[in-house]
């Protein structure tokens, strides 16, 4: 299947970042704007309480479901924003490693940020995403 997005890398920018610096989608693509994927179980309880990596994994699992139901996959994501309720870089890093590993070679432009609090009780991680697909 042809992908709608093109990831853009630059030799003029640092290679330290584990993501492309930009991405494009053609005018004929359908954009999918996902609500923040939260680490919630089907019953509404928060998964992996106290575990940044565990919550990131559950958020990715929920994101995959929303993408599938929208006719897309992780390979169609054009950008992400990873929110982590912590001021400690190691906590942000624990969540980021799970997100980064989930995307594999599809290293979409991403923003990782520490925030004060998220919306659900015991929630530590939330992942926003935009995807683009070419419908046949």
Give the end-to-end Cα distance, rounded to a whole number of Å. Answer: 10 Å
Largest sheet composition: 4 strands, mixed
Order of strands, widest sheet? 3-6-4-5
Give start-end ranges of low-pLDDT stretches. none
The helicity comes to 10-25%
Q: Tell me the total number of β-strands.
A: 6
- Protein structure class: alpha+beta
How confident is the prediction overall: mean pLDDT? 95
Number of helices: 2
Q: From the alpha-carbon coordinates, what is the Rg to the nearest angstrom?
A: 15 Å
**How much strand content do the residues show?**
25-35%
What's the order of the H and E elements? EEEHEHEE
**Shape, principal axes of CA atoms:** globular
Provide a compact summary of the structure.
By secondary structure, the chain is α+β, with helices and mostly antiparallel strands. 24% of the residues lie in helices and 26% in strands.
Please give the structural blueprint.
Elements: E1 6-8, E2 22-24, E3 30-37, H1 52-69, E4 77-84, H2 89-103, E5 110-114, E6 125-133
Parallel strand pairs: 4-5
Antiparallel strand pairs: 1-2, 3-6, 4-6
Kindly describe this structure:
With 136 residues, the protein is an alpha+beta fold. It is 24% helix and 26% strand. It is built from two helices and six strands; from the N terminus they run βββαβαββ. The strands form two sheets. A four-stranded mixed β-sheet has the order 3-6-4-5. The longest helix is centred in the middle third of the chain and has 18 residues, at 52-69. The protein starts with 5 loop residues before the first strand and ends with a strand. 32% of the residues are buried. The model has no long low-confidence stretch (mean pLDDT 95).
């Amino acid at each position: 299947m042809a992908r709608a997005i093109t990831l853009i890398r630059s030799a003029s920018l640092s290679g330290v970042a584990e993501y492309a610096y930009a991405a494009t989608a053609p005018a004929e693509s359908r954009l999918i704007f996902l609500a923040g994927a939260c680490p919630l179980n089907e019953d509404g309880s928060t998964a992996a309480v106290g575990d940044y990596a565990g919550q990131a994994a559950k958020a990715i699992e929920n994101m995959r479901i929303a993408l599938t139901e929208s006719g897309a996959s992780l390979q169609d994501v054009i950008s992400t924003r990873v929110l982590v309720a912590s001021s400690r870089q190691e906590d942000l890093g624990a969540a980021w490693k799970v997100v980064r590993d989930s995307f594999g070679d599809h290293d979409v432009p991403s923003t990782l940020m520490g925030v004060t609090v998220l919306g659900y009780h015991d929630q530590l991680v939330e992942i926003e995403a935009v995807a683009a697909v070419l419908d046949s």
